[in-house]
């Protein structure tokens, strides 16, 4: 978890001496660790706060076709997982955000405004400016802003700027709390959120807003959603270089297996995989999160990796814990280290590597280095004669193993192959450059070995 504090003053520079100037504080937190919202020092969303009774409208911008209506912002519920468009409000892809506003019905002393979001990538962080207005000006129009005008030119007063981005990967749960420790952030009837996209080079960078709370000063304290009992396991490598968490909330029965098998496998193999796959300026994630999810949330797959989070199908792991489970974890850790998505959208000529490279390298490391004794990717002579080197997974792993055994003079072929894929420059020519033979020549030799 990471916290960052931003201090913003609402006082105009000319009126520093004026009385009762509010000191507005914005606190942002990011959490990756849980299948439920969990923040160091920002409370869970409120259910019966002032936002729930307000009239909400989109003042500028186009919501995404898959977005939920604005009512998800004040329903006191959080999304069931990190990529749930129907439980979040968000603006359309490729657009520069927009504005939403609320009429609270009357001026209230606002103690705090909290916003919550959750997504695996650039739709997780929050970047917005919060404005307020009271109802003293009869000409003020809260639910429209003329084209090309800024809110502050239309009678809105800027309260705070929120930017929850950090130098970590953007994904996870983000919460931002705007408050004034000395009292209220101000007395307002209307609030407006001018929302920006979180990255300019990614069309999918409009935040998935899950919940917005507006807490009045006189509130005794709103009712808040309650977290389920969370179970997790934390450990690090012996040298403290890498840190791991395993969220066991959905599968407490897998705690003994996680301690006796998963933990030692991860402690030994994650640093090994990192050392196997270096490239220029690349730093592998220092913190990796595992989480068990119920089988029905996994869309039929045993495991998948996104960024530095590895999701594990609890039903499958219960079934396979004495057989395939540990090997599947090794495979997914290779995806975390590959980080082929980390440069998405950056660089005009960036090529995505083909699926058989993406999956062949993890299966090579799994079947030929981690568990060679299982012979899991061995091909019979007959199967080999008909095999396609780009058939992905075990077959491609078998091909990669053969090339490494026969054409890797300096022992750097695997790392160079991975580096090309990671940095968006992999092509069929990579094979010719690294071995002197074309991809198809190698495939023929492999089939006829
Ligand atoms: Zn995979």
Salient structural properties:
alpha+beta; 9-stranded antiparallel sheet; Jelly Rolls; disordered N terminus; Neutral Protease, domain 2; 5-stranded mixed sheet; binds zinc ion; 25% strand; 9 helices
Molecular structure report:
This protein is an alpha+beta fold and 449 residues long. It has two domains: 2-216, Sandwich (Jelly Rolls), CATH 2.60.120.260; 232-447, Neutral Protease, domain 2 (Orthogonal Bundle), CATH 1.10.390.10. The protein contains nine helices and 14 strands. Strands 1, 2, 3, 4, 5, 6, 7, 8 and 9 form a nine-stranded antiparallel beta sheet that branches. A five-stranded mixed beta sheet has the order 10-11-12-14-13. Strand 11, helix 1 and strand 12 (287-293) form a beta-alpha-beta unit. Helix 1 crosses helix 3 and helix 4 packs across helix 6 (393-407). The protein is elongated. Bound molecules: zinc ion. Zinc ion (ZN) binds at residues 331, 335, 359, 362.
């Amino acid at each position: 978890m990471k916290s960052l504090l931003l201090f913003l003053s609402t006082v105009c520079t000319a009126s520093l001496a004026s009385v009762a100037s509010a000191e507005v504080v914005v606190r942002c937190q990011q959490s990756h660790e849980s299948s439920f919202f969990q923040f160091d020092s920002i409370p869970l969303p409120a259910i019966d706060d002032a936002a729930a009774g307000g009239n909400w409208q989109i003042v500028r911008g186009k919501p995404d076709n898959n977005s939920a209506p604005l009512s998800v912002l004040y329903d006191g519920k959080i999304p069931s997982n990190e990529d749930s468009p129907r439980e979040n409000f968000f603006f359309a892809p490729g657009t520069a955000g927009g504005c939403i506003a609320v009429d609270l019905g009357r001026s209230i002393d606002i103690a705090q405004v909290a916003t919550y979001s959750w997504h695996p990538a650039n739709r997780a962080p929050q970047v917005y400016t919060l404005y307020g207005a009271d109802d003293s000006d009869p000409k003020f129009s809260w639910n429209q802003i003329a084209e090309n005008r800024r809110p502050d030119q239309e009678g809105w007063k800027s309260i705070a700027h929120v930017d929850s981005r950090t130098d970590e990967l953007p994904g996870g749960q983000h919460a931002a709390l705007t408050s004034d420790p000395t009292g209220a952030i101000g007395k307002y009837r209307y609030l407006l959120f001018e929302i920006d996209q979180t990255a300019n080079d990614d069309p999918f960078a409009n935040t998935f807003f899950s919940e917005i709370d507006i807490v009045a000063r006189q509130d005794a304290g709103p009712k808040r959603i309650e977290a389920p009992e969370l179970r997790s396991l934390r450990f690090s490598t012996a040298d403290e270089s890498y840190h791991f968490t395993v969220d066991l909330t959905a599968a407490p029965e897998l705690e003994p297996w996680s301690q006796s098998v998963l933990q030692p496998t991860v402690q030994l193999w994650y640093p090994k995989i990192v050392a196997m796959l270096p490239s220029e300026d690349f730093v592998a994630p220092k913190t990796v999160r595992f989480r068990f999810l119920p089988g029905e949330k996994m869309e039929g797959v045993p495991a998948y990796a996104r960024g530095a989070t590895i999701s594990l199908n609890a039903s499958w792991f219960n079934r396979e814990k004495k057989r395939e489970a540990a090997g599947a974890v090794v495979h997914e850790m290779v995806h975390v280290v590959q980080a082929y998505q980390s440069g998405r959208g950056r660089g005009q000529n960036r090529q995505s590597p083909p699926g058989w490279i993406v999956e062949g390298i993890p299966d090579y490391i799994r079947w030929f280095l981690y568990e060679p004794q299982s012979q899991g990717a061995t091909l019979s002579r007959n199967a080999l004669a008909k095999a396609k080197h780009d058939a992905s997974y075990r077959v491609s792993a078998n091909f990669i193993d053969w090339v490494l055994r026969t054409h890797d003079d300096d022992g750097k072929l695997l790392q160079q192959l991975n580096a090309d894929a990671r940095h968006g420059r992999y092509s069929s020519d990579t094979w010719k450059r690294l071995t002197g033979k074309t991809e198809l020549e190698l495939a023929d030799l492999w089939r006829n070995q």
